[in-house]
Specification:
The complex is a heterodimer of chains A (362) and B (84). Chain A is mainly alpha-helical and 362 residues long. Chain A contains 16 helices and four strands. The termini of chain A are far apart. Chain B is built from two helices and no strands. Chain B is rod-shaped. About 7% of the residues of chain B have low confidence. Classes of the chains: A mainly alpha (362), B mainly alpha (84). At the A-B interface, α5, α6 and α11 of A face α2 of B.
Amino acid sequence: MWPERESRLNCPRLKNWFAERYDIAPLKKLAREKLVPVHGHDLWYYTGGVVLFLFALQFITGMLLSFYYIPHAEHAHKSIIEIVTKLNMGWFFRSLHHWGSQLAIFFLFVHLFATLLFKSYRKPRELLWYSGFILLVTAIFFGLSGYLLLWDERAFAAVRVATGGAGALPIVGDFIKAFLRGGFDVTGETLTRFYAFHVAILPLFTIFLMGLHIIIVQIHGMSTPLSLKDKNVPQVPFFPNILYRDIIVWLVVLGLTVTIATLLPPEIGQKADPLAAPPENIKPEWYFLFLFQTLKIFPGEILGLNGETIAIMLISAGILIFFLIPLLDRKSGRGERSPLFTVVGYAYLAYFLIMTTIGYFT
Amino acid sequence: MTLTVCITTVIAFIVSPLWAQEAKKAIEVFPSTPYYQFIIFENLAIFWIAIIGLIVILRMKLREIEQRQKLGLDREENDAAPPN
């Protein structure tokens, strides 16, 4: 009785049909042989999986919203109001998309700083660091482009400030500003351009980068902290042990996202008016606050030079050094302890947290 | 008559910004009807019960797998006799 029932449930004919055409034995072998080290810091491994899950959630909710959104300066704001007020559960999916993006960027930052502080970027994993960093920048641009689609006065002013900031870069600044805006100022052209970035260019780029990132992780395996280098760290199979734990973490994150989306649906401001004065106390999204606050502490002019240009150049230099850390930290690459880069990592983290907090409360 | 016109003009000046404020009222981003709000919060509670239930089932399954691995029941025997 039992074997018969089991075989019916396992669909043997379908399995045989598939097995005759495709040999998935190497994939099965890879799944069986993939091992994950278990130690006191293995909690940080799950942050990457959480980002992957939240991106998948963003793709689903984004697709649903795109059925009703109209990417035109005259209709964009009205179409969002209609999604929120007239469509069944429209308010919920828009809120889920908003909070999903916030949490995805939050977990990307956590994942990035965990990688930095555990020196998981060290040789031979440099490409993992570079692809992950570019993925974070892409996610931030995802956030900025999605923010403008709302086409309300705050989004309009924030994008005007952000693209204007890019324009302060020497030599290439004006080109970047004009390229992002699609003209001299933020207009309907910018909305069309940001919509194209948000729904076509960035998703394709993200899928490619994520695929690359995941393939490199499979090649190198999971990284262990340098402090455990000479210790015999126990390992467990990824499938099914870690996959089950991943699913548990994803369920908790899904629950949290849904709860926040239900309790704190994001507001919609008044329709953007290019001729109106920007609203008071305008602030960018939280992940831009450290840049915004850094720009604020610089005076308008330093030694006869434009203060904003100097600030943007210093920020760019700081970000470039951060990006190149795997090249600069040679000790970690040799498997030696590098306390200098631990200090550098904490300094970057402290700067980010302090500036974001000051920017939020002032 | 002049007094009436003056008073009407003054009232119009005072009242018109109030209409403008009315027009700028915040857009409702959450259902305001208590009935719908009750349904939403009820569904949120059911959703959490389902999530906790799934987590409990997954934890039980994971524990069972770990027990099997500890006993070595998951390993393939290389020298097992071929089936008849």
